[in-house]
Amino acid sequence: MSIIIDMDLEDALRKTGLRVTRQRSAILDALRGKDGFTTAQSLFHELRRRKAAPGLATIYRTLSTLAGAGALDTRMQDGEQAFRLCGDRHHHHLVCDGCGSVEEVTSAEVESWVSRLAKRKGFLVTGHSADVYGLCASCR
Fold first, then answer.
1. Are the beta carbons of 49 and 42 closer than 8 angstroms?
2. Is residue 94 exposed (0-12), middle (13-18) or buried (19+ Cβ within 10 Å)?
3. C-alpha angle with apex 77: 8 to 104, nearest 5 degrees?
4. In DSSP terms, which residues pair with 102 in a beta bridge?
5. In this predicted structure, what is the pLDDT of residue 138?
6. At what angle do helices 56-68 and 40-49 cross, to 10 degrees?
7. Are 62 and 19 in contact (CB under 8 A)?
8. 64-92: per-residue pLDDT in tens?
9. Most CB atoms within 10 A, among 44, 54, 62, 99?
10. Are 32 and 12 in contact (CB under 8 A)?
């Protein structure tokens, strides 16, 4: 499954105060080629093989800034924070514990459940996230 990104990531960099540089563009290009989560270390080694390696600190800073701006999803993977390009609409995830694949899900059922729960508890929702973990069809 290939992830389609509606958001212009270079614009996301600019909005967070980061200039679009050759190194940051290389990071974005590497992320665009990924279907699942990847770590900063993995990106660093991949970009070194391509001879386009920004420094590890630049990779961490760029990934963290983009994640903070909502352009990347994050999760812990083998004790390290991992990143993946994220669509620009509110969504949820089905995450495979076997192969690590991630499927974005926009679900009215989740939104309905959140609204019902909040109303019942007298809670004002300002945001939410829902990730469902299990095994994809290939890993079952």
1. no
2. middle
3. 45
4. 95
5. 92
6. 130
7. no
8. 888 877 778 888 888 889 998 876 667 78
9. 62
10. no
- Which 8-state DSSP code applies to residue 7? S
Instruction: Please give the DSSP secondary-structure letter assigned to residue 4.
Output: P
Two tokens at 91?
């969504």
User: Do residues 80 and 99 lie in contact, with contact meaning Cβ atoms separated by under 8 Å?
Assistant: no
pLDDT score of 25: 81
Tokens 């990779």 belong to which residue? 59
At 66 the three-state DSSP class reads: helix
3-class secondary structure per residue, 58-125: HHHHHHHHHHHCCCEEEEEECCEEEEEECCCCCCEEEEECCCCCEEEECCHHHHHHHHHHHHHHCCCC
Give the whole-angstrom CA distance, residue 54 versus residue 107: 38
Burial class for 136, CB neighbours closer than 10 Å (0-12, 13-18, 19+): middle
Whole-number pLDDT of residue 87 = 65
Residues of the chain with pLDDT under 70: 1-9, 12, 87-89
